[in-house]
Structures are given as structure tokens and as C-alpha cells.
Design a protein that fits this description.
about 280 residues, about 0% strand, globular
């Protein structure tokens, strides 16, 4: 019934949809272009090794997708009532939680990576540093919380599209330069630099427009916990076989992060969940 969909609403709807689709296409290109360009420059063998590392690194980012879906309607409601303080609270909480979970997932994955490669062909070990750079890029992007959702829901949603398109172009150019120079690692470094720059620009934009940022004292505390845990995971000796080693490493890493997170009261949500359980 078109009377419930007047011209003015149609104009807003189509305008927002166009920019959202363009932004989504750019994000899809950013996520896949490094794989395509590695295949073009290094052939099928390089593509297989690189893609293996990419799909492993995606595991780190899964919690961020879930948190974004949960936070988006809350952010939209806060914008409706002009509750910028509420948006900043969500921004900071999402940054702390994503950084902690993403960092923990990265350390677990990296610490057990050699054991995982034992189950694959020896050639896949060439992708170890690729995973390091890609995993680190995931953690760094998770540090910026739900910045993308805040911009996309705000009246400045066009900026999200502009930066996404610009990032896609920059990613193609940086990959074209770095892959011939440094091979597989070049593609991963290009992606890491592109994503980090992209999220820094987003964070700076939100700081300029709404005077909000994702960082707090918890950011420093989480950094300390993750760095300490990473160092400990690197010096743990190998135990018996890959299966026992994976279990004991994972238990130690989870125990350190879990204890310090609760002891330092990093996240009210995590502490509340722990007490509830």
C-alpha cells in the first residue's frame, strides 16, 4: 500500500539502501581481494596456503560479528533519543570485550598452530607468519569496537561508504605493491595496514563529530593481560604429543586470562556472568 510509503520516505529508503549496498560490496571486496591477488601473483599453491591462513584468522573475528548484531539496535535507540553518553558507553564496552575475546582467540590459535600444521601437509607451514599478521589485524580492528555500526546508524552513514570504497582501492594498490615484494607475507601485511588505517580513520571521525572514543583504563589492562599471556604461551615446553600439548596449553592460557580478567574486574558483564554461573 503506497500510502504508507510516501515519496519522501522512498527517497530516504533508496538513498540509504544505495549507500549500504555500495558499502557492503566494498567490505566484501576488502575481505576477498588479498586472496584473489595472491592467486594472481603467486599461483595456486600460494593461494591454497594463504586461503588456509585467512579462514583460520576468521575464527578470531566471529565474536565481533555477534557483538555488533547485539549492539546495533541499542545504538539505534540511543540515537533516536540523542543519548550520546549511552552510545559512548556501548562503544567502550564493545571495545574492551572484543579486544579481550579477540586477543584470547588469537593467542590460543597461535600457540597451537604448530600442532594444527602437524595434521596438514608440510607446505602449509609457510602460512604461519601470514596467520600472525592476519590474526593481529583482526585483533586490532576488534579494539575499535562497534565504530562501524555507530557511523552506519548515524546521519553520517555516507562516510562509512566513502571510507569503505577508499579502503577497497587502497587495499588493491597495497597488495599489488607488497605481494610481488614479500610474497604471502606481503599480502597479509597489506591487509593489516589497510584495516588498521581504516579503523583509525573511523575512530577519529567519531571523535571529531561526537567527541567519543573507544579507549579506557580497561584497554591498558587488557593489553597487559594479553601481552603477559602471549609471552607465557611462547615459553611453554612441548608436552608428549600434539593432542596433550594442545589441551594443556589451552587450559593454561584460558586460566591466566580468566583469572586476571576477573581479578582486575576488566568487564562488568564478564564478572556478572561468572557470578551467575
Amino acid at each position: 500500500d503506497l500510502q504508507y510509503f510516501p515519496n519522501q520516505m522512498r527517497k530516504v529508503y533508496l538513498n540509504y539502501s544505495f549507500f549500504s549496498i555500495l558499502s557492503g560490496f566494498s567490505n566484501l571486496l576488502i575481505a576477498k581481494v588479498d586472496i584473489l591477488m595472491v592467486g594472481y601473483f603467486l599461483g595456486g599453491a600460494g593461494l591454497a596456503i594463504y586461503a588456509n591462513a585467512v579462514y583460520l584468522s576468521v575464527l578470531i573475528f566471529i565474536p565481533a560479528v555477534a557483538i555488533t548484531k547485539i549492539a546495533s539496535p541499542v545504538i539505534a535507540r540511543a540515537f533516536k533519543f540523542k543519548q550520546i553518553n549511552e552510545i559512548e558507553t556501548i562503544y567502550k564496552k564493545s571495545s574492551t570485550t572484543q579486544f579481550l575475546i579477540g586477543g584470547l582467540a588469537f593467542i590460543l590459535l597461535w600457540s597451537n598452530l604448530d600442532n594444527f600444521f602437524e595434521l596438514q601437509r608440510e607446505e602449509y607451514r609457510q602460512g604461519k607468519m601470514v596467520l600472525f599478521y592476519l590474526g593481529l589485524s583482526r585483533v586490532l580492528t576488534m579494539l575499535f569496537g562497534v565504530a562501524g555500526s555507530i557511523i552506519n546508524i548515524s546521519k553520517y552513514y555516507r562516510f562509512d561508504t566513502i571510507t569503505s570504497v577508499s579502503l577497497a582501492i587502497f587495499t588493491v594498490i597495497s597488495n599489488a605493491i607488497m605481494i610481488p615484494l614479500w610474497g604471502l607475507e606481503g599480502g597479509a601485511i597489506a591487509t593489516m595496514l589497510s584495516l588498521t588505517l581504516f579503523y583509525l580513520i573511523r575512530a577519529q571521525f567519531l571523535k571529531a563529530k561526537y567527541d567519543i572514543h573507544p579507549f579506557s583504563k580497561q584497554t591498558l589492562q587488557v593489553s597487559f593481560i594479553l601481552i603477559l599471556t602471549f609471552i607465557i604461551s611462547e615459553i611453554l615446553p612441548f608436552a608428549l604429543n600434539i593432542y596433550v600439548d594442545t589441551i594443556y596449553r589451552s587450559v593454561i592460557i584460558l586460566s591466566i586470562v580468566g583469572f586476571l580478567t576477573l581479578f582486575m574486574n576488566i568487564s562488568e558483564d564478564v564478572n556478572r556472568l561468572y557470578k551467575k554461573v
